[in-house]
Every structure is written in C-alpha cells, then in structure tokens.
What we know:
Helix content: 40-55%
Amino acid sequence: MMMLSYPYGWITAAGLFFLLIFVLIFSSRVVINGHLRRLGDNDDIELNIRALYGIIHYRFKVPIIRFTGTSVQLKEQVSKTNVSTDTWSQYYEDIDAEKVIKGIDKFKHVLQMTRNLKGWVRQTLTKVSLVEWNWTTSVGTGDAMWTAMTTGAVWSVKTSIIGVLSQMVKLKTEPKMTVQPVYQGSSFRTEWSCIAQIRFGYAILAGLQLSVRMRKLKGGVKAWQNILFKA
C-alpha cells in the first residue's frame, strides 16, 4: 500500500507546484509606466512595460523630436528583455502629413473590418488600474490676459481628459495636476507621468479574444498584417 501511494504523492505534489506557478503567473501584473516631458525645445517621451515580475521588459524611448516645418523627425530607441535575450535598437523616422493620413486610414479600415473592436477596447480598459497620474504645466504668452485665458484652457483640457479616463479605467489614486501661469514672458513647459497596471491573466485573455475576432475576418490575421504593415 505504501509503495502504491508513493508515486501518487509525488504526482500530487508536482501538480500542486505547477498549479501554484500557474496562479502566480496569471495573478502577476503587467506594469505600464509612461513619461513625457517638454522643456523649451527639448522633448522626451518614454514608455516602459514590465511583465512576469520584471522577466519581460519592453522600453520605448524618443529622446529627440525635431519639427522641420513639413514633418516631425523622431529618434527612437527600443529595448526588449526576456528570459534569455536582451536586444536594443535605434532608428530615425520622419512623420509628415502623408504618413498621418495613411495611419488614420489604416485605423479606420481595421475598425471597420474587426467585429465590435470598440467593445473589445472598452472591455479591456475596464481591467486596467491607474495607480499614478502626475501632470504639471506652466504656460505664458507674454500678455497677462492671454496667459490667464490660456491657463484656464489648459486646465479645462486636463480635467476633460481625466473625466474621460475615469469612465474607461479604474482610478486607484487621485490624479495630481497643476497649471502654473507665467506672466514674465512666453513659456511652455509640461511634464506628465503615469503608472497603469493590468493582471497578466486579463492581458492574455484580451489577446486571445482579439485573436479570435481577427480570425473571424475574411483573410484572418493576414488581413490585419496587410493593413498595418503594407507600405
């Protein structure tokens, strides 16, 4: 009897161990950390995504943004880290009016082709928790009256954005926002940062749901690829 129960005990222990690993993985959080800063002519945009307790790490950074008059030049840096690899790449990109129009057309096409894509986005966002939101801005036009009006307009835009976000995601903290008028001259400075989280299990489920919706299209996943990545 002892000999018969011995292997079953190990099987049970192994099953419980893998169940524990499964629960830990799917209950872990995907942490999204965004940061944007504009000080004078200097711009800095950075996005960090961490998953599986930091084992998977994606970093996207735009340290240089130049306005040429007809287009926007970006220097982009992308870093990806997982269990066995760590890759980093850097490249430049010009964004002009033609690329913006093409991007909008692609988005509209995908929206029309995918069944209830808006519903999927809303459902996914309800699982996202916003745990930090900081946004400070100082603005001046050189004229006291116009500076006061611009300050009010900026504050209105900020509160409107938070109002929309509160309807889509879970606010776990009180957003911190300030708008400081600068009466000494023309000036615009802004810095924004936020931290959002979603459970890894919800993220996987959302990905599977989107995959099912994509496969129901005529052409399936290839149709999405042709739309998003065609020249």
